[in-house]
Amino acid sequence: MKSHVIVGRGATASKTALLLAEDGERVRMISRTGGGPDHPLVERVAADATDTDRLTELAEGADTLFTTAVPPYHTWPELLPILSASLLTAVRRTGAAYVMLGNIYGYGPVDGPITPHFPLMATGPKGRARARAWEEAAASGVKVTEVRAAQFYGAGAFSVFSLLVQRPVLEGRLALVPQELDVPHSYSAIDDTARTLVAASREEQAYGRAWHVPTATLSVRELARRLADLAGAPAPRLEQMTERDLTLLGITDPLWGEMHEVLTKPGHPLVLDYSETEKILGVGATPVDEVLRQLI
């Protein structure tokens, strides 16, 4: 029986654990709180993944180490390298295959459609932290792949859409959004992200390179309208936040100040090309309305 370690406990980590367990494979989930889904083949362990010796002990004998964990958003430049180094060391010591969940910050502000072969040209601190995590793992000689997701949406998602748009739309309130309202943007569903992680872990030719999670591409206004229509909610009321709004909000909460780096270039769509994921890994995008119905 195969066994795996997943570092993280969020929606993607939990869904990945369940997909593996439902196929009869053992999973050990590691997080500071010891959270995770209730399943007989899923063991939940409370541990700090930056404790490399403890992480190595927990990963010993695993076929694959998945990581979906990240430190608090505004601490990425300082803390993500520490977490990444610990994970990579544990993989080196145990010989486990390494499957990383990443995002698209490492590309920087580029024109799409973006393929996973685009160079990682980010110059901002969060983008560079993401890029370095992959570059160091890829150059280490371990068996590694990275699955890169766009902005999450759907049940369990933690993103700009889920935090700032979803609830106001369902409640008929005004939603303030730090994103252009009518420019196409790619979104990754949690289930599709988990399915891509599992598929990449099982495909030998997946290692040594990155893959894109299948996405739905539409504007935030279009996505909000689809959500409202399916939920029987009033027509969405959206308003774009300005750079000044983010700066003022950043005075009281560092999360807002960090948004400046990851905003797309004005008027430029953010579109991911996931054709290789579909062709080689056999994972496609779940229809938007299906994702939203699960959320509702």
How would you explain this protein's 3D organization?
- The protein is α/β, with parallel strands linked by helices.
- It has one domain: Rossmann fold (3-Layer(aba) Sandwich).
- The chain is 41% helix and 19% strand.
- It contains twelve helices and twelve strands.
- It has helices spanning 11-22, 52-59, 76-94, 125-138, 160-170, 190-202, 220-231, 243-250, 254-257, 259-262, 275-281, 288-295, and strands spanning 3-7, 26-31, 42-46, 64-67, 97-103, 144-149, 151-153, 174-177, 185-189, 210-212, 216-218, 237-240.
- A seven-stranded parallel beta sheet has the order 3-2-1-4-5-6-10, sandwiched between helices.
- Strand 1 (3-7), helix 1 (11-22) and strand 2 form a beta-alpha-beta unit.
- Helix 5 (160-170) crosses helix 7 (220-231).
- The chain is globular.
- The chain starts with a strand and ends with a helix.
- The mean pLDDT is 93.
Describe the structure concisely.
The protein has 296 residues and is an alpha/beta fold.
Give the mean pLDDT: 93
What summary fits the major beta sheet?
7 strands, parallel
Query: Termini separation (Å)?
Result: 36 Å
Strand order of the largest sheet: 3-2-1-4-5-6-10
Taken together, the total number of domains comes to 1
CATH superfamily (homologous) name: NAD(P)-binding Rossmann-like Domain
Architecture per CATH nomenclature, i.e. the level-2 architecture: 3-Layer(aba) Sandwich
Helical coverage, percent range = 40-55%
